[in-house]
Design goal:
Layout lengths: L6 E5 L8 H16 L3 E4 L5 H12 L4 E6 L14 E5 L2 H11 L2 E4 L4 H15 L7 E4 L6 H12 L12 E3 L2 H9 L7
Length: 188
Amino acid sequence: MTTDLRSVCIFCAASPGGDPAYAEAAAEMGRLIAEAGLRLVYGGGSVGLMGVVARAARAAGGEVIGVIPGFLRYAEIPEAEVTKMHFVDSMHERKQMMFDLSDAFVSLPGGIGTLDETIEIMTWAQLGQHAKPVLLVDTLGYWSAFEKLLKNVVAEGFAKQSLPELYTVVPDPKSAIGTLLGRPAPDA
């Protein structure tokens, strides 16, 4: 998908979700990013899927960059095993720094924070602020309701028919890495 891919930003939950499959996919995503020689950029927390993806990337020898607002230091508890942690003052600074440090974005399942990050990065693309890939990993069909909502946004005339071009839904982490690298997914 991109030839200059060095860093992948992961948007995901600060909670584990209700099914172990979410954490399994997060761990696989972190591991595959590291094995592909890519740097992981993420929200900096040690809790939920954020912690899972970061620890898996580090365990696989990857570089992990965390970005966390100081006010979340006790809620999301910064991951100790990162290559570098950036403390910022606000959520806006967090998103901007994550954007600046990343060549692509992958959204795993998550709550409204993940939805916010995903929609904002898609909005920036729609406004011509970047052309970086945005992928949604559809673990257990998580993103199907989101896609349905976006189709309705287009059908009701609130967005252009080109809206689906702003993102790519993939079934699993292997497909995400394969798509980002422009080749078939690596065998696990």
